[in-house]
Amino acid sequence: MKRGFGSDNHAGVHPQIFASLVAANTEHAPAYGTDEWTDKATEEFRKHFGSSAQVFFVFNGTAANVTSLRALSKPYQAVFCADVSHINVDECGAPEYLAGCKLIPLTTVEGKLSVAELEKAYIRRGDQHYSQGQVLSLTQPTELGTTYSFAELQALIAWAKSKKMFVHIDGARFTNAVTYLKKSFKELTADLGVDVLSFGGTKNGLMMGEAVIFFNKDLAYDFKYIRKQSAQLPSKTRFISCQFQAFLQDNLWQKISQHSLQMAHYLYESVKDIPGVQVRGIPQSNAVFAIIPSEWVKKLRENYFFYVWDESTFECRWMTSWDTQREDIDGFTAALKELAQ
Ligand SMILES: Cc1ncc(COP(=O)(O)O)c(C=O)c1O
User: Fold this and answer.
1) Same domain, yes or no, for 53 and 76?
2) Whether the Cβ atoms of residue 57 and residue 210 lie closer than 8 Å to each other
3) Pocket test for ligand 1, best of 98, 170, 176, 317 (most atoms within 8 A of CB)
4) Residue-wise burial string across 72-85, b where 16 or more C-beta atoms lie within 10 A, e elsewhere
């Protein structure tokens, strides 16, 4: 399949990550995270997030979210989330089924939640008939490719804390937000009062694997049991942790996210003035959203795969990844220009 713009998880494994897997492929090593790669990866995470960060590896992003929510809520409690959030629309009800909590999806603008919407949802406190909001879950960057600014995060998290709610971040593409905002990992999580982060690897060059990072030690206490009971304790954890070690070491994460963001900008600049193409806005992560005439989709997809995000408007999502090349974008732009003639 030709390199297209379907998703960053359509890309293969970054060569440096692949090399880490080969290097970890020694004869024998202890299982279930008691190995040297897991220790080293945890050390790398603590360099970025602070020494008290508690790190747990799981297989995928859905599991990172669901196990995080299990740790943060009781079955009679609720999670405030974006209407477009992955936990709400793309996890087949796993948070409700496995974490037991109720999701309360709220109206968003450009994929982002606001304090005003949260205030509207914060009702019936103490009412035994009503599921009590206990967690605020934010996606950073959002499913619509936007990124919450530092000030927006401060306001949302301060609101949650004022209500004694926990804060979870779905960071399947968190490194892209960090690069876009030019802040440190710690400034965007622990320092703001985030309790748990689902930290993505798969969409950023890893073969597979995500990390659940707790900044609130008390909440982390039972997590090893939650992870095991949720069938998410990898026995050969070293093959996930070695990838994260390589990802964080020597700032590979930054090189990858800078590249993906630069490619998204190049794509945006290349297509924004093509007649018939209505681009949403300057990219704030590695995605470009654009409305195009419906009859163009089939033709374009013959060579470059992508998803139609909104079937009613034919808004499409074009996503870049660690391996996107300028030639891919030039070819795609040429195809769009030909259709626009
Ligand atoms: C924002 C977000 N969160 C979580 C996930 C879940 O990842 P996985 O498919 O590994 O379960 C995705 C995957 O598309 C995502 O886009």
Assistant:
1) yes
2) yes
3) 170
4) bbeeebbbbbbebb
Q: Which two tokens stand for residue 278?
A: 């209505």
CA gap 47, 178 in Å, rounded = 15
Contact 319 CB / ligand 1 (< 6 Å): no
By the 8 A CB rule, do 143 and 111 touch? yes
Is the CB of 209 within 6 Å of ligand 1? no
The finding on whether 139 has its CB within 6 A of some atom of ligand 1 is: yes
On whether both 131 and 260 belong to a single domain, the answer is: no
Q: With a 6 A CB cut-off, is 145 part of the ligand 1 pocket?
A: no
pLDDT tens digit sequence for 55-76 = 999 999 999 999 999 999 999 9
Give the Å distance between the CA of 275 and the centre of ligand 1: 33
Split into its structural domains, the chain has a count of 2
**pLDDT 10s digits, 191-212:** 999 999 999 999 999 999 999 9
Whether residue 160 sits in one domain with residue 136? yes
Kindly state the percentage of the chain with pLDDT values over 70: 100
Q: Is the CB of 95 under 6 A from ligand 1?
A: no
- In a domain, residue 198? The reply is yes
Residue that finishes a domain, picked among 216, 235, 251: 251
Q: Is 86 in the pocket of ligand 1 (CB under 6 A)?
A: yes
- Indicate which residue's Cα is closest to atom 8 of ligand 1: 61
β-strand pairing of 287-291 with 278-279: antiparallel
Can you give the pTM of this predicted structure?
0.97
Residue 61: CB within 6 Å of ligand 1? yes
Same domain, 238 and 307: no
Q: Which domain holds residue 204?
A: 15-251
Q: Is 219 within the bounds of a domain?
A: yes
Q: How far is the CA of 174 from the centre of ligand 1 (A)?
A: 11
CATH code for the domain of 189:
3.40.640.10
Q: Is residue 277 part of a domain?
A: yes
- Residue pair 90/150 in contact (Cβ under 8 Å)? The answer is no
> Could you tell me the CATH number of the domain that includes residue 281?
3.90.1150.10
